[in-house]
Known about the structure:
By secondary structure, this protein is mainly α.
Amino acid sequence: xxxxxxxxxxxxxxxxxxxxxxxxxxxxxxxxxxxxxxxxxxxxxxxxxxxxxxxxxxxxxxxxxxxxxxxxxxxxxxxxxxxxxxxxxxxxxxxxxxxxxxxxxxxxxxxxxxxxxxxxxxxxxxxxxxxxxxxxxxxxxxxxxxxxxxxxxxxxxxxxxxxxxxxxxxxxxxxxxxxxxxxxxxxxxxxxxxxxxxxxxxxxxxxxxxxxxxxxxxxxxxxxxxxxxxxxxxxxxxxxxxxxxxxxxxxxxxxxxxxxxxxxxxxxxxxxxxxxxxxxxxxxxxxxxxxxxxxxxxxxxxxxxxxxxxxx
Length: 312
């Protein structure tokens, strides 16, 4: 294939989930519905936490930021796909593709790190309850949030700048519904060894270290719960981290499956269909998991709806 400088690549072609014209209205309606459920659900979580002072604790502080990150995560990918379906186009500009890739990596990384921080919060709450307010003080919570943002912004910016040095072939079709870094690098005609090394090294660090931290935290949590004599005490302790554990399992289980399949030499639409679970379904389910399995959140949402119903 004839290679060309990246500045000559004016657009990429997003092949999407299907080329069947008859399926496009169905896909548009389905993804619009899932996107609205995701945004409204996460906004309700943020609003309930903001309006109820008894939820102004470290756990709910991080939960509200996770909901905000999920909104950005889904908006980055789904909105462009909905626009493409509605306008019957499947192209995205070179600049737009890099921008989408940049924000996708930010919010995906932020979800990862926030889940790790929330695991640490549950570890302190269950294993060191008497020192919880001292350890998880507001300054530490803000510092952990800012550190998570800084890591994600730096990593995403570094990866995006590295893509700028890559030249692409004339064939710029991406078998996906959004611009993903691994798929973009597979279109390159120039050498991407440095990009691949950086991708797998940093992604490994951002994947292995947080996951190790989560597993360590929960190993200590389970050990502490097993040491509680009463059944009621065990249930109460586990109920405080059950929702988070379910979200972590969903996030890492689906994400790991998607990225193991995306590493194949010949990408196909099967990978993009699997990515729907990772990029749309999981952020959509998070508000339901936290609200249905958490007594405080259910109470806050109930009062929120009641206040809205009685407001003029």
